[in-house]
Amino acid sequence: MIVLLIARSVTHHGGHEAVHRLAAAAAAELELPVRACFLDGAEPSLHAALDEVPPDDDVLLVGAHLPPDRYLDTWIRRAVAHWCTTRDRRPRIALSAPLSTQPALIRAVVEAAAGPSVPLGGNPGPFRSPAWSQLTTHRRHVLICRGPRCTAYGANEVAAALSGRLAELGLGDDDVLVTATGCLAPCNLGPLVVVHPEDTWYERVDADSAVRITEHHLVRGEPEIAARPSRQ
Questions:
Q1: Cβ 9 vs Cβ 146: under 8 Å
Q2: C-beta contacts of 114-121 below 8 A and 24+ residues apart
Q3: In what order do the strands lie in the sheet with 140-145?
């Protein structure tokens, strides 16, 4: 059996690594393979993690979220159902009880409260830094949907390809500001990429088309033929 520890979107590197460390620690205790994956916004996606499971192995999904999150529970089920209908495989997949119902969670909170603590201090200056009041001078703003369905359809690869090509071209935030978003609504058309100020929407983007969008639209100002403005 393989255990997949599923987290929600992680927008900072430290949080991403923390989920992987938790999976490694759990694997050592369980003496079973435990791998971290993400429903949205980070790699590897749940779909990618399921793709790596050997054909004859059972899968136990453990949601790594507190407090209870009906959104995550619902989308885990939907994502698994989609994966099963798009792959020629049928491993036995089960979902554990929520972490919030585990007695060990109460013990962990009690032990943390009774354990050592570190006094907090520090300089509040960075919190109020004037730099956070300045708009960037970007020519274009790109939104990449990283919601659950777009992630299942390949949004992680799209984001990596687009950002990677911008880096190769030496274009930073002052040229093109790239922002990962949650659900942008027309999920069945995903992965979605939106370019402002033109308000141009790209549907069913893959890594190759992300590179073309970068080179044609973001660099030369020539939207792809398949793109659609949001108002017609």
A1: yes
A2: none
A3: 176-181, 140-145, 193-196, 200-202, 228-229
The mean predicted confidence, pLDDT, of the chain is 89
Amino acid identity, residue 106?
I
Rounded Cα gap, residues 185 and 182, in angstroms: 9
The four Cα atoms 171, 176, 180, 181 give a dihedral, to 10 degrees, of -170
Peptide bond into 44 cis (omega under 30): yes
For residue 230, name the pLDDT band (cuts at 50, 70, 90): low
* Helix or strand holding residue 166 (H, E): helix 155-168
d(CA 189, CA 68): 29
Residue type for position 22 = L
177, β-bridge pairs: 141
- Does position 13 have pLDDT exceeding 90, yes or no? no
Across residues 40-60, what is the average pLDDT?
91
How long a stretch of residues is the chain?
Answer: 232
Sheet containing 93-95: which strands, arranged edge to edge?
34-38, 2-7, 59-63, 93-95
